[in-house]
TrEMBL record, chain A:
It is found in: Cell membrane. GO terms for biological process: respiratory electron transport chain. It comes from the Bacteria. It comes from Planomonospora venezuelensis. The lineage of its organism: Bacteria, Bacillati, Actinomycetota, Actinomycetes, Streptosporangiales. It catalyses: a quinol + 2 Fe(III)-[cytochrome c](out) = a quinone + 2 Fe(II)-[cytochrome c](out) + 2 H(+)(out). This is Cytochrome bc1 complex cytochrome b subunit.
From TrEMBL, chain B:
InterPro entries: QcrA_N, Rieske_2Fe-2S, Rieske_2Fe-2S_sf, Rieske_Fe-S_prot, Rieske_Fe-S_prot_C. It comes from the Bacteria. Residues 1-16 have a biased composition (Basic and acidic residues). This is Cytochrome bc1 complex Rieske iron-sulfur subunit. One of its GO terms (cellular component) is plasma membrane. Residues 248-338 form the Rieske domain.
Length: 554, 368, 270
């Protein structure tokens, strides 16, 4: 401990006090730090999921920079003369040759390539699980709608970033993806041929696309991503994180650990975990073995050519679509390409982006929300989410139907037939099942609040009946459950038939709105269900138990 | 996982401690304070760890950091020690570098977690939230200031200034778009390019272009390609390595027993049971190349469009809407297979300007 | 509250039960799905004329599907006239024939008990005597050491991978048929498959893909069989499907566990 000088606080070591007062003299950073050093971050494991994407992005920047030192984004034709025997003397593009060089002639090159690829997969996966967490807990609600939209934008960009990166090594597998991209782009009405010829600098595959994808992949898209990530973080910081319902947690406070030192250390640890898991996968899981694929030629293709998983849903949609093409007035509309390429992506991305606003429109809820919903407490939202996951997941699985057919000895054609039915049926079933599950879970919450929890202690009553003793839940659990609040319904939505609905709820759209609002909102299973709680025992149970309605618990 | 509290006794009125799907009650009992031995710090919501735990944590964290140190050294040593240059040595290098890096990172992560969990205090700090919206006074101040500034600048009062500024910005905004024009080729009759392949061109000495085997470049004597059920991937002579040409011109050549061919196939364009179809799928352009000689089906591995090769490659399954175009072939005077002309219709995926090329050919009395 | 009850109420208990149930289902599945029947009884071989002995073997083990004179029986087995000795060698040495159960396609399996070099030769001689056809290659024709691996790779990519996948890991065809993996195929079998076109596979006869070119391809395939995976576990070498699976099953799970560890509330010491 050194003694403080006149300008610094007591007991700050000189090595720190010196530089920090130098900086504060010039930046006035002290005021910012004063407000933010002890900024409180709520604790919940699911709040860390978004960080997977953040840290993966950092690993992507690090490993990607390394790769650019060796990669040659050129489609110039070369004869391979590197270390890999199986391709010696084979003609290929300079891009593919340099990717092989990174793999076999640069120490650590293969590890960096593999880590880059795994990190890319993890980046998208991290965004997905984070988005699901935000969706199911309603953390996108006011004031966070804008940050949600930024997130959806980033997810879209991440898919684009993945597509451009995947194509760069110019191997036979990625080339198949590029060919499909071309086939989809050229099918667009009116502008298809223009877009394709401009993208490829002429006819497919041309000699430009790798270098163009390269500048998109390493400069433009990551640049935009970086800007959006910064905005995403700043908004999160300014608006403060949502918290799960619990004891002492309200819509007007935030309860948790301070940024410095606890959250900082936790975040650092999680960065290292993410980095470590990427390194683990890069070491022990071979990914994208381009030397086995061979160089790209539009003449060849491998069985089981698949995109990376995050494009799997588009692949599945393309596979499942029946043949359908329309010719009108000498123009062609290839619907068996257009529909699967645009509709599922459109449904998912647009649906995600608009959900907060649609929900607001339906519930009429304009309040700020800082306490997260438990998924069961908004059953329609949760069911819509699960239904969407089912839709997406089915397409995703069907994107691998050839591998499924091959592995499990199911007829390839039947996987398609079954898929064509399931894509319509399964999301509906998922919706209904989830809705019932949510209500069931709400009922069990109500039972816990109303009657307490089973203690495992069996008591025999004087007249011979055996009962299990129920005890009140712990305070924290009860607070967690009581965090539930009714979903708002637009005022006037429950106007009696014949009554005059308020302005805005008239006309067909207004009526629909009122109907949706009534269905979506409200309290399905009130927690207390007409009981007081804790206050009264009824003799049938023991003194610590509570509640009369035995049908709920027995 | 989140609760490791099963062996801990609790007062009778507080069991069980946990309902699935709710947070561990640990924190709540911490607040009761009755049974904890932790020192309570001066600040509310900050519960210091007891010294015994902290000591133990320090030891574990230090062990983790030491492992990281050693693994980091191992990483550098591996870089120096293991060379690359073939598959086997790359395997060893990748394993050594990767394993040491993984261990270093995960160990560092674990050390940090131990530090947070065992040495740093338990926090339950509470901060106020405020409405995001600024108060009305601020809003009206900003609004007034904005209007005042706009008035001061003259932009509202002087339409000439405003309009010329807007007009000036328009071409500048368009300039980058103009610059993009040369991304595309100088010609703009793209659809025309898509309608033709190199099979339509004669060779330099004016002869029909020969079919050659992909990968070897050898021309194919019809008499040699004589095993029914045989296939070959075929490229045009002179364009064996031209990817732009191959993207439209690659063929799948199939040998049938003459009686197997059905009416969908244009027999005039075959030679002795040998049929040539475009290998580019009419769905989105993958090479449709899986051929089952027992069913005569051609399957595209990308989206599983299936074509009946014996019947003009008509679609029998999957998303492709049109048959694979057939190439007219015959033999030259040396007995080698040649193309007598181009495909009658554009090959590959559909595009807007394509139109129903098959119907047009049929109207002219031809065979698509 | 005794220990077992406590265990049953553990939040992980339901997952454990689920896992157990899934495991049992898997075991039941493997028991129910029929495995290869016991091979036909071995046949004593005497020193007799190859063709005659081959005919005897044929009548015992093959004629029920292919007909007494190998003329084929509709919907049971194709005619074997003209398929050649090479086809016999391929089908019988890889255990595909005799077939033990009907199906979309005969799978590779352990050859029948009576199968050995001698009996294959006899059976081959009989089939060869019916209408000629391709004969098995010589040792030299299939010696991978004599082939050019990279050249073979180009031919392999042009002609084989569309069905067999880029490393010969196999792939699905229509209606339950499939292209088998090449991981166990011997050089001789690879050659014979190309020359004869077994089942759904097309023929690559010697006049268009020369024996030398076939040997190059064999060199490439054998190279693939022997090559280690420098980047870690090969994940079946079927491309992004298993990679994605590993990411979600291992990557995301590990990180979720890490997140839970970091944020888990810990009870203060008693």
């Amino acid at each position: 401990m050194s003694h403080s000088d006149a300008s610094g606080p007591a007991d700050v070591p000189k090595a720190i006090a010196g530089p920090s007062s130098y900086l504060d003299d010039r930046l006035g950073a002290g005021n910012f730090l004063k407000r933010n050093l002890r900024k409180v971050f709520p604790d919940h494991w699911s709040f860390l999921l978004g960080e997977i994407a953040l840290y993966s992005f950092i690993v992507l920047l690090l490993t990607g920079t390394f790769l650019t030192f060796f990669f040659k984004p050129s489609m110039e034709h070369v004869i391979y003369d590197g270390s890999y025997d199986g391709l010696k003397g084979v003609g290929m593009s300079a891009a593919y040759a340099s990717a092989l060089e990174i793999s076999f002639d640069v120490r650590g090159g293969l590890l960096m390539r593999q880590m880059h690829h795994w990190a890319a997969l993890l980046f998208v996966a991290g965004m997905m699980v984070h988005a699901l967490r935000v969706f199911f807990t309603g953390a996108y609600r006011k004031p966070r709608e804008l940050n949600w939209v930024i997130g959806v934008l980033m997810l879209t960009l991440a898919l684009l970033e993945g597509l451009t990166g995947y194509s760069l090594p110019d191997d036979l597998l990625s080339g198949a993806g590029l060919r499909i991209t071309e086939g989809v782009a050229i099918s667009l009405p009116l502008v298809g041929t223009w877009i394709t010829f401009f993208l490829f600098g002429g006819e497919y595959p041309g000699e430009d696309v790798i270098s163009r994808f390269y500048s998109l992949h390493i400069l433009l898209i990551p640049g935009i991503l970086l800007a959006l990530i910064s905005a995403h973080m700043i908004l999160m910081w300014v608006q403060k994180h949502t918290q799960m319902p619990g004891k002492g947690r309200t819509n007007n406070n935030v309860v948790g650990a301070p940024f410095y030192p606890a959250f900082m250390a936790k975040a650092g640890a999680y960065f290292m975990f993410t980095f470590g898991v990427i390194a683990l996968l890069g070491t022990f899981g071979q990914i994208n073995p381009i030397w086995l694929f061979g160089p790209y030629t539009p003449a060849d293709i491998s069985a089981g050519s698949q995109p990376d998983y995050y494009m799997g849903f588009l692949e599945g949609a393309l596979r499942m679509m029946p043949a359908w093409e329309i010719n009108i007035w000498g123009f062609t509309l290839p619907l068996s390409v257009l529909i699967p390429a645009l509709v599922p992506m459109g449904i998912i991305m647009t649906g995600l982006a608009l959900y907060p606003f649609v929900e607001q429109w339906v519930t009429g809820d304009r309040r700020e929300h800082h306490v997260a919903d438990r998924p069961r407490n908004n059953p329609h939202r949760t069911s819509i989410g699960v239904s969407a996951i089912t839709f997406y997941g089915l397409l995703w699985i069907l994107g691998a139907n050839d591998e499924i057919s091959w592995t499990f000895h199911i007829s390839l054609n039947w996987t398609t037939y079954i898929g064509r039915v399931l894509i319509f049926v399964a999301p509906v079933v998922a919706y209904i099942v989830t809705y019932r599950l949510c209500l069931g879970l709400q009922r069990s919450d109500a039972a816990v609040i109303g009657h307490g929890v089973e203690s495992g202690v069996i008591k025999r009553l004087p007249h011979g009946e055996y009962i299990e003793v129920h005890v009140p839940p712990s305070e924290d659990i009860e607070a967690h459950m009581r965090g539930k609040e009714a979903i708002p319904v637009i005022a006037g939505a429950d106007t009696e038939p014949g009554g005059i609905p308020p302005k805005g709820l008239r006309g067909p759209i207004g009526k629909l709105k009122a109907k949706m609002s009534k269905a979506y909102g409200g309290e399905k299973i009130p927690l207390d269900d007409g009981h007081g709680h804790h206050a009264h025992g009824d003799g049938e149970h023991t003194a610590v138990g509570a509640g009369e309605d035995r049908s709920l618990t027995h | 996982m989140t609760d490791n509290n099963h062996d801990i006794e609790q007062p009778d009125d507080r069991v069980p401690k946990r309902v699935v799907g709710t947070p561990s009650p640990a924190a709540s009992t911490t607040l009761l304070g009755a049974k904890e031995t932790a020192r309570t710090a001066e600040a509310p919501g900050v519960n210091l760890q007891d010294e015994k735990t902290a000591k133990k944590g320090e030891k574990i964290a230090a062990l983790c950091f030491t492992i990281t140190l050693l693994s980091g050294i191992a990483f550098i040593a591996s870089y120096v020690a293991f060379q690359v240059g073939d598959v086997e040595s790359t395997e060893i290098s990748n394993l050594a570098l990767g394993a040491s890096l993984t261990l270093a990172l995960l160990s560092l992560a674990s050390g940090l977690v131990v530090w947070v969990r065992m040495i740093m205090p338990k926090y339950k700090l509470v901060q106020e939230r405020h409405l995001m919206a600024s108060d009305g006074e601020t809003r009206s101040y900003v609004g007034e200031t904005f209007l005042q500034g706009a008035a001061e600048s003259g932009i509202t009062k002087r339409p000439l200034l405003r309009r010329t500024l807007l007009a000036a910005a328009a071409p500048l905004g368009l300039a980058p778009l103009v610059l993009l024009r040369d991304l595309g080729p100088s010609y703009s009759d793209f659809p025309e390019k898509l309608r033709h392949t190199v099979w339509g061109e004669k060779t330099k000495d004016g002869k029909n272009r020969r079919l050659v085997v992909e990968g070897t470049g050898a021309p194919i004597r019809a008499a040699d390609f004589n095993s029914p059920g045989g296939i070959l991937s075929v490229v045009p002579e002179g364009y064996e390595h031209d990817l732009n040409a191959l993207a439209k011109a690659v063929l799948i050549l199939i040998k049938f027993r003459p009686e197997e061919l059905k009416s969908g196939t244009n027999l005039n364009w075959t030679h002795d049971g040998i049929v040539a179809y475009s290998k580019i799928c009419t769905h989105v352009g993958c090479p449709a190349a899986l051929y089952e000689q027992s069913t005569h089906h051609i399957l595209c591995p990308c989206h599983q469009s299936t074509f009946d090769a014996a019947d003009g490659a008509k679609v029998v399954f999957g998303p492709a809407a049109r048959p694979l175009p057939q190439l007219p072939i015959t033999v030259d005077n040396e007995g080698y297979l040649v193309a007598t002309g181009d495909f009658a219709v554009p090959v590959g995926p559909s595009f807007w300007e394509r139109g129903d090329a098959e119907a047009e050919v049929r109207e002219k009395g031809g065979h698509a | 509250m005794n220990r077992i009850t406590a265990g049953r109420r553990h939040p992980l208990a339901r997952y454990a039960v689920l896992l157990l149930a899934l495991g049992l289902l898997g075991v039941a599945y493997t028991l129910v799905v029929p495995t290869d029947d016991r091979a036909a009884a071995s046949i004593a071989s005497g020193k007799v004329d190859n063709v005659a002995e081959g005919k005897r073997l044929f009548e015992q083990s093959c004629s029920s599907c292919h007909g007494l004179n190998a003329e084929g029986i509709p919907d049971r087995g194709p005619s074997l006239v003209g398929v050649g000795w090479a086809a016999v060698d391929f089908q019988v040495s890889s255990g595909r024939m005799p077939m033990t159960q009907p199906g979309a396609q005969a799978p590779r399996k352990k050859p029948a008990d009576w199968v050995n070099d001698e009996t294959i030769k006899q059976l081959g001689a009989y089939i060869q005597s019916l209408g000629g056809g391709p004969v098995p290659p010589t040792e030299e024709q299939v010696d991978p050491a004599k082939g050019n691996r990279a050249k073979g790779g180009e031919l392999f990519r042009a002609n084989c991978i569309q069905c067999h996948n880029f490393v010969g890991a196999g792939g699905a065809l229509t209606q339950g048929k499939y292209a088998p993996e090449l991981t166990e195929a011997t050089p001789k079998q690879i050659y014979e498959a190309m020359a004869t076109g077994p089942q759904a596979m097309p023929v690559f006869n010697d006049s268009v893909i020369t024996p030398d070119q076939k040997r190059d391809m064999i060199a490439y395939i054998v190279g693939l069989q022997q090559e280690p995976n420098p980047g870690g576990a090969g994940l079946g070498r079927i491309g992004p499907v298993t990679e994605g699976l590993l990411l979600w099953v291992v990557g995301i799970s590990l990180l979720v566990l890490a997140a839970i560890w970091i944020t888990a509330k810990k009870r203060q010491a008693q």
